[in-house]
Amino acid sequence: PARLAGAIRRRFGKHPIGREIPVQKSAGQLARMRDELIAGARRKGELARWLLAQQEWDFSITVFGETHRAGHLLWPSLPGEGRDHPAGALLDVYRAVDDAIGQLIEGVRMEDTTLVIFSAHGMAPNTSQEHFTRRIMDRVNERFRNSGRSANAPHRGPRQRSLMRLLREQLPAGVQHAVGQAVPDFVQEIVVDRAITAGHDWVHTPALAVLASVTGYIRFNIRGRETRGTLEPGSETFTRYMRWMRECFQSFRTVETGQPLVKDIALTADSFPGPRQSYLPDAVISWTGGSPASRIHSDLLGTIEAEAGTGRTGNHHPDGFSIVVERGGERGKAAMPGDVLDLKPMVFQRLGGPW
């Protein structure tokens, strides 16, 4: 209820952590974020226990998002990666959440309560190569327009000329972090939007890379769907461009290891058909794995250099979990859902249905 908002703010204050700015972090910043996440987990546990005492509950859920932020920023670096993480920082945050859950359980009558502890997905070392997606698309579009050039020819053409993109790529990480923390959310959203969409020569931009995390996202500039769309669905040009884009992505190998960069290119129209499919990216690029590369090469498009600039040493992994402690039970048991969508009916079933 809205009336609780004021009481919560007066009693518990704001959550210690702010928004995440996806840039590299210094050792001092990471240590401070670890401490903020630990404090946030403790405060979250106290808040949840206080709320449970306010009334009788049929169902209550508490989200400890601290593990998510910590998994992205505090996942231990591999030797030689040059990241200066505080020792044991990720485990410290996990322990703080574990303690908060323990304190929360102490305030609950477990003899008539079913407890479910779950994670909708897992975390793992960051193997995303998404920092190359936009640079590859620059060359894909340029070469599609200017076919016949050699791979070593100067790359000129309809590249994106966006001031926001230039600033995001060139400004020092510390400056970006300070600005991002200071400005309101809507300003940050405008900056990100302009960095992606501004500065394109839309007549010669068949597709563009949009913001992603684990995988790469591509959106086609389709006539009739986009304001200045150029690709006609089902046309010979569209088919030729799709074939060219796929060939280009699959031609890249990492210079450091010689391994292919791309594992698969999936079209969401095939994988996720439906009336709202147009809200999804049109193509999803999945990578072969390994640490983020800094240099890749293609016989078709030449060499590209880029650094992963998000500061995320950890990233999403499909494997989640759930542990269920039945009413009056002394120990929990793993109840692995086949899909995150199975969690809802699992809870409803224990609430007594029908649903």
What does this molecule look like?
The protein is an alpha+beta fold and 355 residues long. The chain has eleven helices and twelve strands. A four-stranded antiparallel β-sheet has the order 3-4-7-6. The protein has a three-stranded antiparallel β-sheet with strand order 1-11-12, with no helix packed on it. The longest helix is centred in the first third of the chain and has 26 residues. The two termini are 24 Å apart. About 3% of the residues have low confidence.
Question: Main traits of this protein?
Answer:
355 residues; alpha+beta; 4-stranded antiparallel beta sheet; 3-stranded antiparallel beta sheet
What can be said about this structure in brief?
It contains eleven helices and twelve strands.
Q: Helices, strands, pairings?
A:
Elements: H1 3-12, H2 27-52, H3 66-73, H4 89-106, E1 115-119, E2 122-125, H5 133-145, H6 163-170, H7 173-182, H8 185-197, E3 207-210, E4 216-220, H9 236-250, E5 253-254, E6 262-267, H10 268-271, E7 283-287, E8 295-298, E9 302-305, E10 314-317, E11 321-325, E12 333-334, H11 343-350
Antiparallel strand pairs: 1-11, 2-10, 3-4, 4-7, 5-8, 6-7, 8-9, 11-12
Helix pairs in contact: 2-3, 2-4, 3-4, 5-9, 6-8
Sheet with the most strands, sense and barrel status: 4 strands, antiparallel
The rounded distance between the terminal residues' Cα atoms is 24 Å
In quaternary terms, these chains amount to single chain
Order of helices and strands: HHHHEEHHHHEEHEEHEEEEEEH
For the largest beta sheet, what order do the strands appear in spatially?
Answer: 3-4-7-6
Q: Would you tell me the structural class of the helices and strands?
A: alpha+beta
Helix content: 25-40%
* Dominant shape: globular
**Poorly predicted regions:** 148-157
Count the E strands: 12
> In percent, how much strand structure appears in the residues?
5-15%
The pLDDT mean sits at 86
Tally of separate helices: 11
In angstroms, what is the radius of gyration? 24 Å
